[in-house]
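Local shape tokens

___
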Amino acid sequence: MTGLVARTCQHATRVAKRWSAEAPARRFMAYCRQRWPHRDSTSRDSVVLVGLFTSYPLILCYAYVMNHLAERSGSRIESYQFLGSVNPLINRLFEAFGARFGLGAADTAPHESRARAQAAEIMPGLKTRWDVMQITVDGVLIGDQIYDSYLRFYNEPTLRLDDPRLRELLVQALGIFHATRAYLSRTRVSAFITDDFSYINSGIITRLMFLAKVPCYAVLFGEPFSLMRLDPEPSGAGHQFPPPAIYPYYAFPQLFQKLTETERADAIEKSRRALEERFAGKFCPLVKVAGTTYAATNERVLDDGPAPRILVMLHDFVDSPHGYRSMLFPDFVEWLDFLLERARKTPFRWYVKPHPCTADPSRAAMNLANDKAVVDLKRRFPEVTVLSAETSNKQILEDGVTAMFTVHGTAGHEYAYHGVPVVYCGDNPHIAYDFNIHAKTLEEYEGYILNADRLQVQIDKRAIEEFFFMNYYHHAHVHGSPVNPIDERIFADPDCESRINNVAIFNDFIAAATPERERGVAAYLDRYFSQPG
């Protein structure tokens, strides 16, 4: 009996702590129910659909956007989540602003036998990693989504064709595909908001919504708050889906020319100042890397001597290698094997720098996977020097580097700005400009590796400044809201990242919800959704 009493007390204590911790969220729910009552939403025969995402700032932004879309189209709001258990608190938060759960794992169950039968037909044909990349169902590509999900879900640097988890992931992907198709057959979806489209939970449904000609949007919170309509590449190159990377990087030069002459001049000057500050070691929030990668150290990190020094910038091995339209390799491990096997034939000094995100202690499982890949790299290529992920780019440049290689790294414009030739082997944010080298074939790429000491590229700093504006400022400049649902002072807080992930942030959201702010957000949404197309 004493044990029962103790367990009962412990349970009561846990419930009380959870009740107290969730108090800000409950206050936010009450605010949402008052602000968006949805008395007649169940009678509406169309739906605006949103992913059940756990980001607190996005939940606030979704509340505004989804309700605006619902009223505009006479729709009700539903949420979806296919993988993992549904977080009860997150589900209640979505329900508070009108989004009832409408599509999930239970909807895939009726399609399981069909999915398993299809997987049994597909698996024997998967002889190479490229075969996985090319998996299609009813003409719709899903292989790249499966590949990226395998790496991310299982924290594996590369895909193993004999891994039984691959079959199960294929079954899951097929179940999501068929469940989404069935949902679309019985539901008129008037708009769709996606939070991520690099993995099977969101990527497959986004593609099917797009093919069904449902207007698809991404909500970007931050400074400023904005929306983005997802559209295919307009060049006629045969891409049936919007590029996974949100911004239309392939059209940056054309979009820049649409600005007025004054806007273009101001843009170049703004970028020049931002680049100078970044290279001086100032933290740049645009780049979304903690701290700075251009700190002064005054301690040499590259060996001295006459041999050309070549740098390889790694990526996060497990985080969506297919985040752009194409690459010459199925993943980053195969890329590195190809590169370093040829590098060892050269007389150059080769250096490898891991991605700075792998120094983030909050990513324990992902970092272990990256560490595993780097340990294997050192074992197989002992002649290559592996730098720390925190090595200063400023120091590397001061030590003298002859060329840099990456797949689609965003540091390409930074090294080019310092006169260093940068070689890419995949689609990347800089693809529309010629201040970097973009290899189109394996043979061409091999030539660049073997001749890395004498690469020729014309580097125009003004083009780099134009790119910087287009990549980091243009969307906000053209489509950003002058009024943010979130109090902008939150983003100025040095502890912003941990603050926005704490449930107490809902108190700040409520406090900032003034009539003036709400009118400003509503006016922005009216303007945005009134635009043609």
User: Anything to note?
Assistant: The longest helix spans residues 164-186. The chain has a mean pLDDT of 90. The chain is about 45% helix and 10% strand. The radius of gyration is 25 Å.
